[in-house]
Design brief:
2 strands, mainly alpha, Four Helix Bundle (Hemerythrin (Met), subunit A), single chain, 68% helix
């Protein structure tokens, strides 16, 4: 009797990539790399236009308002608060991933809730900033601010600002939705049944990427 052919081996090594990294995590890294190229193209375009212009609006003058307070003598105070909130949400995400490694459901739930709250707070801050700038007359195709040398500014500043910060805000919003889904799955014991909280780690990679990109956006628009 002819011997049965051996079963085909999984080329990914039982869910592992050729780099000995779990397949889903590898795909997440590929996605983040492609997304980084998109953000890079946006920021390179910004830098090219910014430094080829003879003058540009002063961010210390443009971004000096604070909710319920109005104009402040301390510039960039509100965006500094936004940045702090987003960075702290990254810290809570690290703690959620660490709790997942320990299979501590209670701690995962707690830190995921804090991460989601941080993301929602950041989005709320960004929404207020957009509303305030729009109230001042700033929007796509409209720039009410003057250049630092007193000359009228063109619309490149506002067009780039709303496009790039809006694209980043969409990523934050997507990250919040992903984190809410991860929280619901945790509460429903999905990861306990799987015996692994690896999905929390994958969501964490995306969230850290969003936070890292904000550092570059913050540097480009608010510091230069």
């Amino acid at each position: 009797m002819e011997q049965a052919a051996p079963a085909k081996q999984n080329l990914w090594g039982g869910g592992k990539s050729p780099f000995n990294v779990e397949y889903g995590k590898t795909m997440m890294w590929y996605f983040l790399m492609s997304d980084a190229f998109t953000f890079g193209a946006f920021l390179i375009s910004y830098g090219t236009i910014r430094f080829s212009s003879h003058a540009w609006p002063d961010p210390n003058h443009v971004f000096r308002s604070f909710p319920f307070i109005g104009e402040m003598n301390v510039p960039l105070a509100f965006v500094t608060l936004m940045t702090f909130i987003l960075i702290m949400s990254s810290v809570t995400m690290v703690l959620a991933v660490h709790a997942g490694h320990q299979r501590n459901k209670k701690e995962v739930v707690k830190w995921m809730i804090f991460t989601i709250i941080g993301g929602l707070m950041f989005l709320g801050c960004q929404a207020w900033e957009w509303w305030h700038l729009h109230h001042q007359g700033a929007w796509w195709g409209s720039n009410p601010f003057i250049n630092i040398d007193g000359t009228p500014a063109n619309i490149n500043f506002t067009n780039l600002f709303f496009t790039i910060t809006g694209f980043h805000g969409f990523h934050v919003f997507s990250g919040v939705i992903i984190n809410i889904v991860m929280l619901i799955m945790t509460l429903n014991n999905v990861f306990e049944k799987r015996g692994s909280y690896l999905m929390i780690e994958k969501a964490g990679l995306y969230w850290h990427f969003v936070d890292l990109v904000w550092v570059f956006v913050f540097t480009c628009f608010y510091l230069f």
